[in-house]
Each structure stands twice: as C-alpha cells, then as structure tokens.
Amino acid sequence: MHGSISYDHYDLVLLDDPAPGVRRITLNRPEKRNALNHPLRGQLLQALREGDADDAVRVQIVRGAGPSFSAGYDLGGGNEGEEMPFYTPAGEGQWPRHVTESWMSIWDLAKPVIAQVHGYCLAGGSELATGCDLVYVAEDAQMGYPAVRFGVPDMHFHAWLLGMRKAMEMMMTGDSISGVEAVELGWANRAFPVEELDERVVEVATRIAKMPPDIVALNKRIVHRGMEVMGLRTAIRVGTELCALGTHQKSLRDFVANTQQRGLTAALDARDGVFGDYRTAEEQPGSAD
Q: Who's near 188: CB < 8 A, 6+ residues apart?
C-alpha cells in the first residue's frame, strides 16, 4: 500500500504454520477483545502481504486470540499517538475510505485468506472478516454492527452478503446474528462447534493448499471480479460517503457528547441497555465497535 508504515517485529499479531502451505495469523489483543487499533491493523496487513509474497505459503488464516475474533474498532483511546498504517487522502470520509481500502486489499491478494470467527465479530471485526475470501464460524459466534445505533457503517456489505431483508433488519436494529444464521444467510461458509473450529479450518486450508497456486489465484479473482461487475466495490465506496454524512447527524453528535461527559463504557451501556445485548449482556466485549 502506498505510504505504508513498516513494522520491524510483530507483537499484536502472532504467526504460525499449522500445516504445510498454511500461514495462520492470530490477532493478539485478547484483553481488548482484539479491538482494531492502528498498529494491529497495520501489522495484520503487513503479515498478510508477506505471506502472499512467500512461495511456501498457499493459503492464510486470520483468527483472534482470547474470547472473540474482534469486537470492532478501538474506541477506547488505543489510537492515541499512533499513525494510520498507510496513507489515505484527507478530507470528508477519510476514515471509512481508509478502513475499506484495508479490507478490500485482502481481496486483491493472490492467495486465499480465510476468516476463522468465534465469539464477537462486531462492526470493524465484521468488515475484516467480510474482506476475507472464505469465512468459517463457531456456531455460537455473534456477528453484528451495533454502531448503527448511533451512526452509519464504514463498509456496507450487508445487502450483498445477507440479502436485502436481513440487511435492512440489521441496519434498523443493530442486532447480531449467530454463526449458524450467518451460514444460512450466506455471509459465512460453514459453522462448527467452537471446540472444533481450529481443526476444521486447518482441514479446509490444507485442501486449498493442495491446489496449484497459480490457478487458485485466477479462480479467486474470477469470483471477485464477478461481484465487482455487479457493483459491490462501487457500492462500498459510495457507502463511505454516506458514512461521512452520518458524522454530521445530531444522533452521532449526541453520542460523542455523552462519551465525553460520562465515559465511553457508560455511553455504550446506555446505547445497548434498551436492547439488552452486547455490553449489557453477561459477556462484556469491551470498548470496541
């Protein structure tokens, strides 16, 4: 990516090779439910590019350490003093343009990337998983975009991968869906019991690694080009303009003011309390969205 920061070592992602030809990248902020701050996103993208350029790697897996894949973008100060990992032109909509470029760049890699999703997969976390080529989920995973309760998403994938009616319901409520539902609706490929997820995903990756990589690269591109001809990539870019418009709405300004007065956790509790989910549920996903 133009103007990318180069990282000398990885501490926010862990790398291993669980099978021949398979590179696995683990998001490593478990204490923050893998909230996506600038350095984590940058290290992940760099690791993916390095794997894509490595002849020994034929397929890559992205998963999360701890109880969740990712609870979303870090809203709790994790970006203070940190630069965005690559250059995106300034102006209205810079943030949604920046993050959608991140996730759509995974489409442009030659080698397949698999998202292995468990626990919470919210907002920015759902964008990351969507940008991957294949998605395998734990049956009890929760994929959602609670930020629609105060703003407009950065990456508008829902209508494309969940169908218009379910997309509309999720945009109107901020409710999540389970891993099983995500498969039924077409967002994910298959769902497994969480204790089997690691093994099953490596099995799929191993099958892909046995394929000739030059042919896999072309066949990956065929699927993506088909989606792009139908308008997916253009729709996502148009959506960044709507996201920028959303930042000027009274509801978002009120939410920001509430976070400044009461703190982020209290503001998120107030947002979700009337729905009885996310941060008001027994399992707390942390200060991310």
A: 117, 135, 136, 137, 143, 179, 182
